[in-house]
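User: Predict the structure for this protein chain, please.
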Amino acid sequence: MKCKVLVGILAFFLVFQCSPLVYADTLEASLDTPAAAVNPDPDAPRPGYLADNAGFMTNRVVSSNTPNTAANTELSFKAFLKDAEDWETSCSDILLINNNIYVAIAQSLVIFDGTSGVKLKETELVDSIGYTCRPIYTDGLVVVPLNGGILQAFTADELICVWVTEALSATDKGPHQNISTLIEKDGLLYCATAVADWETTYLGTFLCIDVKTGTVVLKEENTSSGYYWSGAVVVGDFVYIADNAGRLLSYHATEGWRTEKSCDLSTEIRSTLASDGSYLYAADSEGTLWRIALDEQGAMEPSGSVSFAAGSSSTPVISDGKLFIGGYTTDSLGILAVIDLSSFTLDRTVSAPANVQSAPLVVKQGADTYVYFTYNFEPGGLYCYRVGDAEASEIFVPEGEDANFCNASVVASGSGLLYYANDSGQLFVLHEGSGEANASGELPGEALSGGPGEALSGASILPLPAIVAIAMAVMALALGGVWLFRTRAQKGSRKA
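Assistant: Here is the predicted structure, written as structure tokens:
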């Protein structure tokens, strides 16, 4: 028995030391998990952390030395978020704060080390997130949108809850979904909900929250439509948002009250608005981009439109007089459209394998500008387009069990790392390298560098069959007192 125990320990050591990819522990909370009790501490200290990505639309145009070709894109590490088959567990968009990764998974808020993927901290949410959600970082707080229209705020260092809003009343059409884009202006947080199914948005609520205290400044119900996948934008003194029926509303950005100004495009919009300071830009579900003129009182007037796709739920991003947005064609292929704003015409489209639902990431590198985007089909890879080229190229392709659908948006760190996840439940972190590594992270002839919990540079990956074989050996040898090692080895092999 002692011999078997020693062999089991050795096999356990091999499994975890031979694989440099670091995975978070499985989170078992689901959408059915009951709401957790919470005792907010409104006086908890709030750190002054800096963020490379503070929210869905806060850092979409950046300068960074990110990889931009298949030849120089390498996998740094993967972080395990959830099982691909676990459809009840959802993941939020990610935030990059203080060089770490923040993500809400089911009913937990988790911090991973941004250079290794090691889980650093985790706390329970008062309720689950929905299909997805778009958290935001502001004033030292991470604010997470939850089911029922709830918002919960945590200190970014210790994950101490400082406030939580009350749930909105459920309707006969269902509960409020909280999957719109959060934005912040001068200490006020704007959020919108939707009561919707796959085809129809029935109603919704627009909320303005005091970031410091969680006090609800404004709660306005929209009884004719809601804000599924929608999102507001701040221009000057006003906040503008479009509901799913195509009606644009304006609110005073620093006081929270709604103006009497509105604009009805009478077309479905499931996208966050964009602005260049003079105009609003709204993309509808039929692949048309609308330009809306603004005045100093918050009034809006349509001033043109351009068709760029057969359909779209992507959010536009503006840089240097060009607007970038995803969509799909009549034959269900994906496109990234480039629209020249000075002439308000379609400059060009570049192809992708399937619908581009992500918000593009624009990265400036010297005289060149690169646009990164994902597409919603297997294998769920990452495309990069150099502005001015005729086509885009796929710079990273997930392999094996990592291949899956993807509508997530990629984000970048100041140090040149790219982060995104697909429906496999893996978070991929990419860096610029020699280009010798494949999508599993293998580098032929390289020795292992760095241990668990350390950043890994030029590390080789033990092939999956070898990991499985070791895990099976542990299962066979770990009798009686070594059952713990058996469980841990099974986890390691399943996630690799």
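Residues 231 and 272 are 4 Å apart (CA to CA).
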